[in-house]
Amino acid sequence: MKNKSVKYIKNGTKYLCVLMALVLLNSTIKAQDSTAAKPAPASNFVKKTFNGNLIIDNQSVMVPVKGVFEFIMQHRFGNVNNGYSDFFGLYASSNIRLGFNYTPIENLQLGFGFTKERMQWDANLKYALLKQGKTGGSPVSVTYYGLAAVDTRPKKDNFVNDYDRLSYFHQLIIARKINNAISVQVAPSLSWYNNVEGYVSSNGTIKPKMKNAHFALSFMGAYAITDKLSLIVDYDQPLTEHMSDNPNPNVSFGLQMGTATHTFQLFLTNYHSIVPQTNSFFNHNDYTKGMYLIGFNIAKR
Question: 111 near 118, Cβ under 8 Å?
């Protein structure tokens, strides 16, 4: 009896091991089938909501893939309403920004730039918070964009202290690719200047003309005419009411041409300043009076 019991135990153990091996094999095959049936999460995201980092004077919702290094030139000529005297602003005083962007990790872009107006150096970051899903998932893409700038003009002519040189910009970008041709975007923003101009009141006290904080709302869109040519539009509406010197809205429209490594935009705009918080605070070009500028953006990856 004892030998039979040992034999039964050995046989039972053998059968149990075989059964467990079959169960594990079956589970592995099912897991592999399940993995093969489900695409990688990244493949379910909508691609190319906009073709590039910029939509005229605003950032697009897009963040380049990891490892992309980008050079950007933004150029604004003078107002076209001076006519032939300065050849519609092409020979007038211009404004230029040179910038560099790099994506060190997925969904995060870091950058810096230098702008002719006010000799402003800026550092910026862009982070993709949500991405629109092809099937299910988020119905929109959401990206945060932040920028800090320092005005490097001589202190004695422009500032009381160095703290006055600093300004900041925060924007939440919400976009949706409606179909293969049309993409739209809305972006609320907050701009902040440490130093705003003031005036001396009748009782001898200094009062600021503007508040330090300024809220605005931007609307952008793109229509793909072909794979490489798109119509782009941009509207920026100030929301904050200041004591005086309230900025004007911006209306911009133009064309974008793109390749795998280059993006070129040619447009008409009311904005001259390029640095976003400077545009939001101090835009005094009135589009209802034809105060447009010819501008272009070039991006090289």
Answer: no
